[in-house]
Amino acid sequence: MTVPPSGRVVIAGTGIAGATAAETLRKRGFDGEVVLLGADPAPPYRRPMVSKELLAAAFPAEKALLRPPAAWPELRIDLRTGTRIEALDPSASRVALAGGTALGYDALLLATGGRPRSLGVPIPGAVTLRDRHDATALRDVLARPGIEVLVVGGGLIGTEVAASARAGGAAVTILEAGPRILDRVFPQPVSAALEQLHRAHGVAVQTGTAVTEADEISGRTRLRSADGREWIADVVVVAVGMTPDDELARAAGLRVDDGIVVDEFCATSAPGIYAAGDVARFPDPVHGGSVRVEHWNHAQSHGAAAAAAIVGERSPYREVPWCWTAQYGRTVQAAGRPTAGAELILDGDPAGDAFLALALTGDRLVGAVAAGRPRDLRAARTLIGSGAGLPRHLLDGSIDLVALAV
Ligand code: NAD
C-alpha cells in the first residue's frame, strides 16, 4: 500500500522502532500527517540506557532522550506521549484512544514492543525494568547504602543490572534458572567468561536455580528455590525475558503467533497495517522460517523498513541482527545467531578485552561475538547475510574477517 501524499500515518509505540519510522517517513519525503503515540509518558529515549546508564545516580535523564523535545514538532511529527490505544478497527481504518477519541489512519504501524515476562511466582515488592520510570525508581533504591539486591534471571537485563548495581556498591546475587547466565545470547566460552567477570566483581551467581516461593519478612523479601535454599534481600529485580505486546492486533483479528506476523515488507495480515521491532515476527532471511528479534538495532532498522514500505518502496528486509552489552567497562557485541552454530571457532581469549568467536554450520557463518573488534563484527554481519562459505584455512590462528568480507 502507498499512503496518499496528504494522508495520515499513525504509529503506535514511541520506542526506537516507532520513533525511527516517524523520522524515516519525513526523510523519504512523506508530507502528510504523522501521529506518533505511545503509552510511555516520556518522549522517545534510548532504551538500552534503562539497564545501564540510567541506573547510575549521577546520570541526567535528559541525556537519554533520542532527540531534543523541539525536534518532533520541527519534523511535524505529532508526538502524543502517555496516550494508549485501546482498540483497533481494521475494517474502519481507525484506532480508539483511551478517553473515547477515535483516530482514523491511511496506514498504521504497530511498534508496541513488549513487557517483562512474568515469573509466575508472586514476589512481594518485585521490580521489573522496562522503561525510564522503572529505571529511575530502581536507581533511587540502589542508592541506599548497604542495599542487598537479588536479580532473578541472568540474561541481558539481569547481568546489566547486576553490573550497574555493583558499580553503585550494592551487594548482588543473580539467580538463574538455566545452566549458565546469558545462555540465550552468547556461546558457552563467552558466557562463562562473563560469569567469571561478574564473580570477580563480587556478584554471587547461582545457576540452575528456579525460584518457587517468595514472601515478605520484616520489610525484606525472601525467595526460596525448589531445593529448599533461600535468600533474603531489600529488593528483587525480576528479568526473565519479555512478552510481545501483540494484544491489540490479536483482538482485531490480525495474524499473531508470539508476535504480530508480518511479511518481508513489515505488512501484517490486514491491509494498511504494519508492525516492526520487538513485537513483529518476520521472515528470517538467513535461516528461513520466521523470527522475532528483541534488540535495539533491529528495532531501529525494522522501523525504518516499515516506513519505507508505507511510502511504497519494495525492498525486502534483510538486516542481520546485532546487539551489544556493556558490563564492568567491557563491551561485547554479537551478530546473527551465535548460539546456533554446530561449531565454534575462537580467536583470542573471551575473558580478555579483544576476541572474536565465530559460530559456523558447515562452512557457513551463522553468528559471531566479539569484544574490541568492531570491524570484524561488522564484517561478520555482511558474511552472515551473504551466506557465502568461508575457506577453512583462513579460519586458523588469527582471523581477519574484514579481508574475507570484501
Ligand atoms: P533474556 O531473555 O535476555 O534473559 C532472561 C533470563 O532469565 C534467561 O537467562 C533465562 O534463562 C532466565 N530465566 C527464565 N526463567 C527464569 C526463572 N523462572 N528463574 C530464573 N531465571 C529465569 O531477557 P531479559 O534479560 O529479561 O531482557 C528482556 C529483553 O530485553 C530481551 O529481549 C533482551 O534481548 C532485551 N535487552 C537487550 C539488551 C541488549 O541488547 N544489550 C539489554 C537489555 C535488555
TrEMBL record:
Judging by the UniProt lineage, the source's domain of life is Bacteria
List the Gene3D superfamilies hit by this protein, alphabetically. 3.30.390.30, FAD/NAD(P)-binding domain
Which keywords belong to this entry? FAD, Flavoprotein, Oxidoreductase
Q: Which residues form the Reductase C-terminal domain?
A: 322-403
* Pfam families documented for this protein: Pyr_redox_2 (PF07992), Reductase_C (PF14759)
SUPFAM superfamilies cross-referenced by the UniProt entry? FAD/NAD(P)-binding domain, FAD/NAD-linked reductases, dimerisation (C-terminal) domain
**Boundaries of each FAD/NAD(P)-binding domain copy?**
8-303
Its cofactor is:
FAD
InterPro entries membership: FAD-oxidoreductase/Apoptosis, FAD/NAD-bd_sf, FAD/NAD-binding_dom, FAD/NAD-linked_Rdtase_dimer_sf, Reductase_C
Among its keywords, does the record have Cell membrane? Answer: no
- This chain's protein is named NAD(P)/FAD-dependent oxidoreductase
| Phylogenetic lineage | Bacteria, Bacillati, Actinomycetota, Actinomycetes, Mycobacteriales
